[in-house]
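Lab notebook, page 48
Experiment: co-folding of the full assembly
Goal: obtain a model of how the components sit together before planning crosslinking
Operator: M.T.
Materials (sequences as entered):
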Amino acid sequence: MGQRDITKERYSDGKPVLRRFHQARWDEPIIFELSRAGQRGILVPEVDEEIRARAGDVLATLPDGMRRKDPPALPELSQPQVVRHYARLSQENLGADLNVDIGQGTCTMKYSPKINDQLAANPKLLDLHPFQDEETVQGILEVMYRFEQILKEISGLDRFSLQPGAGSAAIYANVSIIRAYHEARGESKQRDEIITTIFSHPSNAACAKTAGYRVITLYPDDDGYPDLDALKAAVSERTAGLLITNPEDTGIYNPKIAEFVDIVHGAGGLCSYDQANANGVLGITRAREADFDLCHFNLHKTFSTPHGCGGPAVGATGVKEELARFLPVPLVEYDGDRYRLDYDLADSIGKVGSFHGVPAVVVKAYAWAMSLGADGLREVAGIAVLNNNYLLKKMLEIPGLSIPYAKGKRRIEQVRYSWEKLAEETGVHSEELGIRAADFGVHYWTSHHPFVVPEPCTLEPTESYSKDELDEYVAIIAHVAREAYTDPEIVKSAPHNSTVHTIEHEPFDDPSQWAVTWRAFRRKVGGD
Amino acid sequence: MTEAAGRCPKLGLIVNPVAGLGGRVGLKGSDGEEIQKRALELGAVPGAQGRAAQALERVSSIVNTDIITWPVEMGEDVAKRCGLDPTVVGSIEPGKTSAEDTRHAAAGMLQAGVDLLLFAGGDGTARDICGAVGSKVPVLGIPAGVKIHSAAFATTPLAAGDLASLYLQGRVSALREAEVIDIDEEALRRGDITVRLFGYLKVPFRTSLIQSLKSASGPGEKVAMQAIAATVVEVMEKGVLYIIGPGTTTREVMTGLGLGKTLVGVDVVEDGRIVASDANESQILSLIAGRRAVIVVTPIGGQGCIFGRGNQQISPEVIRRVGRENIIVVGTPGKLNTLAGRPLWVDTGDREVDGMLYGHYRVVTGYNEEAICRVSG
Amino acid sequence: MSEQRPPDYPYIPNSVPKVKEQMLREVGAESVEEFFEDIPDSLRLKGKMNLPEPLLSEQALKRHVEGILARNATARENLNFLGAGCWQHHVPAVCDEVNRRGEFLTAYAGEPYDDHGRFQTLFEYASMMGELLNMDVVNVPIYDGLQAAATSLCMATRITGRRHALVSKAIGAEKLSKIRDYCRPSADIELVGFEAETGQLDLGELKGRLSSDTAALFLGNPSYLGTIEQAGGEIADIAHEKGALLIVDVDPISLGVLTPPADYGADIVCGDIQPLGMHMQFGGGQAGFIATRDEEEFVMEYPSRLFGIAPTRVEGEYGFGDVAYERTSFAVREEGREWVGTAAALWGITAGVYLALMGPQGMAEIGEGIMARARYAMLKLDTIEGVKAPLFSTPHFKEFVVNFDGTGRSVAEINRALLAGGIFGGKDLTQEYPKLGSSALYCVTEVHSRQDIDRLVEALREEVA
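Observation: model returned without errors.
Model output:
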C-alpha cells in the first residue's frame, strides 16, 4: 500500500498553513431581548416564618421616599437561558487560551496555568472575610508573606505591598510614596515635578498628573533611547522623581539607565522602575542593581495570572527599606511563628485599595513562581527573549515592515514595528492589517500611544508559544501584508470571519447617539 | 452633509496641472509661467494628474459621489480617466492655467456647495485655495507639489483618497485647522527663504479607525491647546512684554487672555492688553528696547521649526535682545509626536543666534505638562 | 548530539534544547546570552536568584499550596457576621461557571471584533446596573468601591469647578483614607457629622458647612453603619441649592427594595458590586461602579471606560466600542482625568450574570429577606442585658451597630470569646468610632438562617451574662 502524507493539508515546507478560521458568530441578542415575564434564573432562600413573624413588614418601616416604587426592569430569564447566553458570548471572545496571543504587545499574554486557577478557587480562600481574626487567616497571610520574599529577591528591593489593584494603581501608589517622602523632608512644595519618558507606559504620566505633579516628558534621542542630555536639562530642585520603563515599549534596553538614576538622585529625586512587564529580565537585571528606589510588577503580566478581560489584578509595589514606612497599610509581618497584619505605619500613604488587594491573584502568582524557581524564571526570560528575536527575524522578511531606532541592536521581550512603508505604498494602515488578522484567529494590538512610531505594531511573544505557533503568526501577518499589496480592498473591508462586521464609530462620539446602556439605546434609537 | 445623511455627497476636485513640475528638474517650485515653461523644457513630466487619479480611484471604489470639477486638465480629464461622469463647471484656456484659475475654481466649488474640496497640488495651490475659500468648506490636499509644508495635505495620494472617502461616508467628521504656509519661491530660488504663515484651511481629521485602548486617553488637540494656553497665561508676569508668534496653539494663548490674534502675524501683549498687532521686526525692536520681553512660539507646520519659518518678524536681533532664557516654546503632544523623534530646529539666518538657541528646551505641552526637546540647526 | 530530553518546563514550549538550538541558529546567535548584551555588566545580577526550590510537578505544587491554605478557618466553616464593605452573600453557581471560562478568564484587551463577548457582557452588565440604579450611564468596573468613591468626588470637582467637598462621617475608615490620599490634589475634604440618636446626617451641620465653593456632598445610603437615610430628597435639595452635587454610595443589593438614589436627586451614584456574585476571597472580590445621568458634562468626566452599542454595516447586528474615548475636559482646569487601566472587568461580567439570574423579583425578595433577617437579629440581640441593637433608632438594611457599653466588656474580648465558639463577631468599631463606645458593626444577609442568628444571640447572652 502506498504511503500518504496525511499532514500535507496542514503543513507546507514544514510550516503550518493558514488555518481556515471562523470565529463563533452567534448573533446573540442583548440579554433584555431574551426576557419573558415571570421567568426566574435562581431562587433566593425563603425567610423563616418566625423571622417573618417577629420582624413584621420590614418594608413598611421605610420612609415613603426610601421604598422602591417600581421594580428594576431587569431581564427575566430561566437559568439554562442565562447559561447559554453567556456560553455563546464567551465563544465570541478570543481568550489567550484560544489563540497565539502575541499580538497584544506590551500586555504579556502568556499562558495562565490551570492549576493556579484551581488553587485560587479553593474554598479555604474564597470564603475568607478580610477582617477575620489573624489567627484564622494564617494560611493566606503566609502565601502573601512568602510571595513578598520572592518579589524582594526578583527586584532586589526590600519591602512590597500587594494592595494596588493593577499596574496603574501601583504607579499611583509609587507616586504617592514619592510625595510622602518629600513631605517628610519638608520639600514637597518645592519638588513638584515628575519626569518620565514618552515610551514609558502612559499611566506613568497620567498617575503623576492625578497626584498633582507637573509632568516632564523626555523624548527619545536619534537612536531611540531616552535622551540623557534631555534628562540633565530636566532635573532641578523641583524634581520629585523619575518614572521610567526599561526596556521601553520599543523593546530596546537603555544601557545608560544607571546614569539616569544617578542624575535624578543627584538632584534629590527618587527613581521608580516601571516593571509592569519584567518578563525579559527576570534573573538578568533588577531594580536594585540600577539603584532604583521603587518599582512595581503586574502580576497579570510577568507572573502569569489571567488577565480576566481586564482585571481583577495586582500591581505589586516595592521599595527600598528607607521608604517602607510610607507603604500602604497593612503590611504582612512574620515573627518566625505567626503572621500578622501591621497597620501601625505612622507615615503610611494610607489605603490605595480595599483590604489586602486581590489575594487570589497573589496565590496564582505565588504558585507560578514556585513551579519555576530561580532557574525556571531565568528560562522564562531567556525563552521570551529568544522567541522575540526569532519573531523579529521572521517578521522583517515581510515587505513593508521595518523597525525604528537602534539599528542592529537586539530587542529584549517585545518589538515596536512600523508599517510606514507598506502604508505609503498601499494606503493600508496598521490597524486595518490588525482587523484583517482577526479573520485568521489572532489578536493584533493597535494601541501604541503616543503615536511616535508611525503605523505601529507591537508584538510580544513571551515564553508561552512554540516555534510553530510563532511561524503561524508570522504567516498570517505576511499573508495580510501581501493582501495589502495585491487586494487592499479585502483588508480594508475586514473583518470577514469575525463575530460582527464593521462597526459604525460615529455614534460613540456623538452625545445624541451614544448609548452606554440598553435603556439609553432604546431611548435614543428606539424612541422609548 | 455626507452619505450618512441620505444623499449622494458632492466632491469637488481641482487639479493644479503644473504642480510639481519644478521639483524634478531642480527648480524650487513651479510658480510662474516662465518657470513652468523651463521645467517642461528640462523634461519635467506632469505628475499631478497621476497623483490625483490615484486618490480619486480610491474614493470612487469606496463611496458614491457626485464629482464637481473644472475643465480639462484641471480635473475633468482625471475624473473621466477614472471612469467617472463629473459635472464640469467653469472654463479655462487649456495648457495655460494659472493661479488665477485655481482661485476661480475654488470659488466655483464653494458656490456649487461641495461637501469636500479635494485638490492636487503643492503649497502654492493650497495658498491659492485658502485665499479663495478660507475655512468656508472642508478641503483636503493630494500631495503633488515640490515642497509640501502646509498641513492641509494627506501624506500620500492613497491616504488622501481614504480620508476623503471616510469623510464623505460620515465615518470621519472631525475637522481641524491646518496651517497654509506660503513660501516665496522666487526668493527661495535666490537662496533666501522667506516663509510666511498664510492662513488656515479646514481639513478632515482622522484620529484612528480603531479606537485606541488601554492607555490613559489624552485630551484632543483642541483641549491640549487650551491647556497650554492656561499654563502660559498663568505664568505671565506684569510689566513684561510678550511677543506671541503665529500659530493655532499660540492663538489659544491670546484667546485665553480674551484677545483676538492676528492669525498669521506676531502680536505683542502687555498686562493682558495688545500693544501691537501684526507687528513687524522694527516695531517689535522699538517696543522691547530696554524692556523685559518674553517670546512665545510654536513649531510651524509639520517640520518642527520654531524660528525662521513663518515667524521671521521675530528676527535674530529680537531673539538676541530677548535672550534665550525668555523664550517659551509651546506645542501639543500631537505635534511633537509627528516629529517621530526628530529634534526641533531653528534657521534664523544668523548663525550666531542659531547657535545660541541650540540645546534643550522645556516645551509646554499641556496643563502642568512639559516635554524636554532638543533644538538643533 | 546527546539524546533529546523532555523539557523541564511544561509551560515553556521552546525550552526543548533542540528547538532552542534551531531558533538560535536561525537568528544567528550563539546563545540566549547574546540577546542581553546591551545590559551592562554592572547592572547584571551576579549569580542566581536566591529563591525556594521549585515544585516542578503539578501534584507537588498543589500539595504545597493547599497545605498552606488549609491553615485558614473560613467564614463558611464558622458563623460569620463581618461585613463593613465585604459581605457574605450566596454566590450562584452560574456566576462561577461563567467567570471561570477560559474565553473570558484569559482574554484581555482585544478589539470589539475578536473580543465581542467581553464588550457585550460588560455592556449588558452596565445596562442591568442602569436598571437597578435608574441611571443611563454606568462605567466598566474600576478597582473597588474605594476607588469609585474617590473618583466620583474628583469628577464632581471637575464638573463644578470647585474644590470643597463634604463627606458624611458615617463612612468606613478605609474609604475615607483612600479619599484623602487620592483627592488631595483636587479636593479639600471636610466631614459632616450624623445625629447621635438616629445616625441620620446632621442637616443643620450640613447647611452650615455647605458653601458656594462646595463641589459635592458624599453620602453613604445605606451608610457604612447600616442606617438608611430618611431625608434623601431634602438633602439633595440642600446640596443643589448651593450648586453642589449629591454623590450617593449605595449597596447595589439593597436596590430591589430601596429607592435608587437617582430618584431622590443623586447626581453621581457609586459603590461596590462585590455583593452581586463575588466570593469574599479575603477582600479580593471588590469592584467599583460609578453611574450618572446621560449628560455630556458628566459623561466627559469619567476616567473609566464606557462601552457603548452601535450598528454595524449589517442590518440588525450590534457592535460595541468605547464611548467618548477621546474624552476631554470642557474647560481646562486643574489636573487631568485620572487614568484608565486594568481593574476588575471580570467581576463586572459576573455581576451581570448575577443580575440576569436574579431578575426583578429575585432582587426584591433578597432585599426584603435581608432586611427581615437583620431586623430579627436586632430585635433578638436587643433583648440581651447590656446590649443595645441597633444603636441608632432608624431603619437599617443589612448592617447595624451593636453597642456593648452596658455589659462592661470590650468588643475585642467579646469577639475572642465568640471566635472560640466558631462565630466571627461584628467588626470592632472602637478605633474607627471611639465616640460610639464599645460598639461593633454586625452584618446579616440571606445566608443567615434563623438558627444562625439564634446561635449568635445565645452565645452573646452567655458571654455577657
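Interpretation: The first helix of chain B runs from residue 33 to 41.
Next step: discuss with group before ordering constructs.
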